[in-house]
Amino acid sequence: MRDFADTLAGSSELREFLMNPSVERSQKLKVLDAIAKRMGMFAQVRNFLAVILEHGRLDELNEILTEYGEVADAHAGAVEASITSARPLNPQDRAQLEAQVAKLAGARVRASYAEDAALLGGAVVQIGSTIYDGSVRAQLQRLKRRLVNA
To answer: Which pLDDT score is estimated for 13?
Structure first.
């Protein structure tokens, strides 16, 4: 479904066509069916998109997907983790870091990644409202505070 949302976001012509109230529902469904076939979409996903389309909620698709992801994660016992590192991480480093984060969270982790060179090294992990800062920048700031207070 995310592929369809990305396609919709990337094509103003498709958005205008599918959201145009003067275009007949049958025409919209033909286009949706063609896209679904090309993407290899499951029938249930296609039907769900048809319901959203019919109720004029296609412009809310990203919010619907975000909410669904949160509900599915809660049901599966998974948590969302935002991981920021000083440099891009290779797949092995990502897997190792995700395993450590899963231990911290006590749950399966769905991670999103970002880079911030200002961290200098290490990583910052956010799970919900909790932030674990293992960056070199944070370590240098703690050292500076200790030296100033000594």
So the answer is: 94
- The strand pair at 130-133 and 108-115 is best described as unpaired
Residues 6+ apart with CB under 8 A from 26: none
Radius of gyration of the chain (CA): 22
Rounded (10°) CA dihedral 42, 46, 48, 54: -170
What does the pLDDT read at residue 77? 80
Q: Residue 104: which pLDDT band, with cuts at 50, 70 and 90?
A: confident
Contact partners, residue 3, CB within 8 Å, separation at least 6 = 39
How would you class 4 by CB atoms within 10 Å of its CB: exposed for 0-12, middle for 13-18, buried for 19 or more? buried
107: confidence class by pLDDT, cuts 50, 70, 90:
confident
The number of angstroms, rounded, from the C-alpha of 80 to the middle of its chain's C-alpha atoms is 9
Identity of the amino acid at 38:
R
